[in-house]
Amino acid sequence: MKKIIVNSYEELSELTANIVVSTMLQDKQVNLSLTAGSTPKRMYELLLEKMSHLGELTNIHYYTFDETPIRNQEGQVVGFDNFDGLKQSFFEPAKIAESQIVAMQDDNYSNFPELISAAGGLDLMVIGMGDDGHFCANMPECTQFDKAVYRVKLTNDFPWNAPYQEGLKGNYSDYMYTLGLPSLLKVQRVILIVKGASKAAAVKRALTGPLDQNFPASYLRLLPNLTVILDQEAAQQL
Fold first, then answer.
1. d(CA 218, CA 214)
2. Of 30, 84, 114, 220, which sits with the fewest C-beta atoms within 10 Å of its C-beta?
3. E-assigned strand segments in 49-169
């Protein structure tokens, strides 16, 4: 594990964007898996600016690493939590062609690791971490560390599920699927980005605490291919 502590969220975003761009510029097909959420927001703004000077990057292919279908009260799928976030923050502004995106969905999630392997494997994955220790959709109480990919039924037994459902504004999710730790072990380079004082305790627990299945991010430090990028506030308890 390589740990990089920078002064600010801006520096974190700039460094991560530069790593993504340098990976993109390889003279081959490049396979990336990027994260949605609030932490990478500034990274995407910088990345879009940098990509605007690089011309068409048709050699880049994008793979999502987890998904949670969103349903309305009639049970119809009306969105996809991860893909919709990536579409809004990056795919659409960057004008990424649909042919360059492979999204994890109901009809392909079970063989998603094989799809990635057939394409040459992932060159880079950028992930975040929740203050509850989740990464991708490897969540407390339901992580399956022996599975390369798996599906989880969302139930009221998971304490984090109720707040998540409340945030869906009248819609709901009844399951999610995600790449697991064995899949991350095969990625050439995994970048974990964490910002803010609110994540400081979680960072300390993930990077220095005991391995704990109820705090999945604690297992990330087993990855030989992991780089952790933190701003000063997120690193303050280390």
1. 9
2. 114
3. 60-63, 66-67, 69-71, 77-80, 101-102, 124-127, 149-153
Q: Which of 84, 131, 132, 212 is catalytic?
A: 132
Residue 11 banded pLDDT, cuts 50, 70, 90: very high
The HSE-up count of residue 17 (CA atoms within 13 Å, CB side) is 20
Given the residues 61, 123, 134, 231, the one annotated as active site: 134
Given the residues 66, 81, 123, 231, the one annotated as active site = 66
**Second-level CATH architecture of 2-231:** 3-Layer(aba) Sandwich (3.40)
| pLDDT at 169 exceeding the cut of 90 | no
Q: Is the pLDDT of residue 188 over 90?
A: yes
Domain boundaries, the chain: 2-231
The mean pLDDT value for 131-146 works out to 95
Tell me whether residue 157 is one of the annotated catalytic residues: no
